[in-house]
């Protein structure tokens, strides 16, 4: 314990103070400019720290990054209902589970069938239809420009 105290004392004492043999008397008083610049520096530091704290809080509060489905489990939606409690809708295969998630435990609140995946098929069909319509319009435009030219 004594070794640690001595090491702490040696590391915290300014060694430059022991090196000087005579003390210097300042010829003029310290400038107010130095105090102003130190005040500005401390204010800027506190402002940066406040921005960091606010950004961290915002990310913690609203930073729910949605990821795509991995394997058979997909998180459809999540909502915070407390500091550490959340309600999460998880899709597993053709079943959706509403889960209550808290530190240390997860409870199933409700179980329901997943809606049919017609939206993905419809989007694919509508994309194909759009592609066909676009090709037809481009070919009609090419024919009209050839006739005019």
UniProtKB/TrEMBL annotation:
- What is its subcellular localisation? Cell membrane; Bacterial flagellum basal body
UniProt entry tagged with the keyword Secreted: no
This protein's UniProt keywords: Bacterial flagellum, Cell membrane, Cell projection, Cilium, Flagellum, Membrane, Signal, Transmembrane, Transmembrane helix
Signal peptide start and end residues: 1-19
Asked if the keyword Transmembrane belongs to this entry, the reply reads yes
Family membership noted in the UniProt record: Belongs to the FliO/MopB family.
This protein's name: Flagellar protein
